[in-house]
Amino acid sequence: ERLDQGLSKTKESVLKKLTRVVVGKSKVDDDVLDELEEVLITSDVGVDTTLKIIERIEKRVAKDKFINASELDKILKEEITALLAENALNSSADFEIPQQSKPYVIMVVGVNGVGKTTTIGKLAHKFKSSGKKVVLGAGDTFRAAAIDQLEIWAQRVDVPLIKQKMGSDPASVAYDALSSAKATDADVVIIDTAGRLHNKINLMNELTKIKNVMQKVVPDAPHEILLVLDGSTGQNAFEQAKQFTLATEVNALAITKLDGTAKGGVVIGVSDQFKVPVKYIGIGEGMDDLQPFNREAFVDSLFG
Ligand code: GDP
């Protein structure tokens, strides 16, 4: 189905590498594990997470004594699923928003070009399709193009966009958007923010100011701080996750552009390393190409 198709490049690459590791081998031994380590690292799982996975498999080998090399993919699949489960890094919610928070406020962060606007548009579409009333806020006031792009999505999805002119205060836009959502009894507000990683202190101050101003309208906002990462950038995604988790309380991840890349391992590594659940994955440019992340489905798609 769609997920399999979206992840096909990563799958192809991982399975090809795994086949090379086990060819001519009868059992999983130290050599196999060394090579497996390399496969995971070159698949952008990240060093720390790779070592954790290898350690888990080592333990299994020590216990079972003999593990057939042909079972390596099955074992890898089980251990990765278990690792993701251990951290509860799963989001089963199918575009659901909690009833008790109205309006539910999502602040979207991430650097330019990762797919922030597209993800906001897709989310607006999903929420609207499930009968929710949605308001968007054009909080990236730094680039005129960001406001224009969001406007196009707002029209396409047919939801209101609250905006001000370029260069205005993002916190003020957020205030307006939340006020409008409250006045119109909206269910969910999604606020874009500028993705400038110019310096950490500025980023932190900017996001803190937006949050504080939001809380004047909705005291417990934002309910969700969604960091958007471009899955095709591999190690850059790790670095961005590091910067943004230091700057603000990121509590959900959206990993985009998994359809065009063999670097899908980043999904496993980033969530494990930063202890933030992957909530959504982007597997295409269209309105319906955003999926709630499900660890079993994800791992099944990778290891077939
Ligand atoms: P922003 O600068 O972070 O707001 O990025 P945009 O939302 O404008 O997206 C940048 C480009 O990435 C656009 O051409 C999008 O169509 C594309 N894009 C976003 N998400 C995905 C995805 O999941 N898959 C693919 N293939 N392209 C995507």
UniProtKB/TrEMBL annotation:
Signal peptide bounds: none
Residues reported to bind GTP: 110-117, 192-196, 256-259
Reaction equation(s) it catalyzes: GTP + H2O = GDP + phosphate + H(+)
UniProt xrefs under InterPro entries: AAA+_ATPase, P-loop_NTPase, Signal_recog_particl_SRP54_hlx, SR_rcpt_FtsY, SRP/SRP_N, SRP54_GTPase_dom, SRP54_N_sf
Predominant subcellular localization, coarse grouping: membrane
One Gene Ontology MF term: GTPase activity
Enzyme class: hydrolase
Localization, UniProt: Cell membrane; Cytoplasm
GO cellular component: cytoplasm; plasma membrane
Membrane topology per record: Peripheral membrane protein
Keywords: Cell membrane, Cytoplasm, GTP-binding, Hydrolase, Membrane, Nucleotide-binding, Receptor
SRP54-type proteins GTP-binding domain mapped to chain residues: 277-290
Gene3D superfamilies: P-loop containing nucleotide triphosphate hydrolases (3.40.50.300), Signal recognition particle SRP54, nucleotide-binding domain (1.20.120.140)
Biological process terms in GO annotation: SRP-dependent cotranslational protein targeting to membrane
EC number, UniProt record: 3.6.5.4
Subunit field text: Part of the signal recognition particle protein translocation system, which is composed of SRP and FtsY.
Function, in words: Involved in targeting and insertion of nascent membrane proteins into the cytoplasmic membrane. Acts as a receptor for the complex formed by the signal recognition particle (SRP) and the ribosome-nascent chain (RNC).
Similarity annotation: Belongs to the GTP-binding SRP family. FtsY subfamily.
Descriptive protein name: Signal recognition particle receptor FtsY
Organism: Natronoflexus pectinivorans
